[in-house]
Amino acid sequence: EKALKENNNIAGFLVEPIQGEAGVYTPSDDFIKKSQAICKAHNVLFIADEIQTGIARTGALLAVCGNCTCEGHCEQQETYTRPDILILGKALSGGAYPVSAVLADDPVMNVIKPGQHGSTFGGNPVAGAVAMAALDVVKDEKLAQNARVLGELFRKKLNEYIQGSSIVNLVRGRGLLNAIVINDSEDSSTAWDICMALKENGLLAKPTHGNIIRFAPPLVMNEEQLLDCVAIIIKTLKAFEK
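Request: output the structure for the sequence above.
Response:
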């Protein structure tokens, strides 16, 4: 808000609803809604980067849906924020084909005239067909709802463990995009060492920003598999407790 008040040459605000590479930083529930309102007041485009968070990952079809529990009618929910521009990728094809998308309404999209925009893989009909089929699977198999339920279970179990832990400070996330913050400095090797131990115990994860370990399992997993993963994580963490 301060930046927009001080500079009238800002065209857009590009934001991840949840920061992925930065360590699954999850903002307060009203952050997206308030950010959009500020952008609108200053005639600035609100651009949602949902390459990591989009397509059911956070327990809703889009992370800008907030905590809504609908099944695809987010525009009817008070929690929904409709960005001026929406960026999607990764999960858009269900992992079956490279595809990404930029969505916008006509007042934004029609600014681009023929010859002003090029794309190496743009206009790919196979990618379009794969993406539409993948979206059908997400809807039919209720993967957003599955991610929401399993994500709550994951954080509940890990939060129970860290009550008596010296190695983990915090569990955070939404849906099946979560992270644990390791009680050590960012330049330490502890998080990396834990990930190596996790690998030996049968679970793959990677550290980000030095002392944060991110977990983004397949959206098709079930409760039994999730609990198996939690058991591996807890077993591994116990070996690093001081």
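The chain has two domains: 2-140, 143-238.
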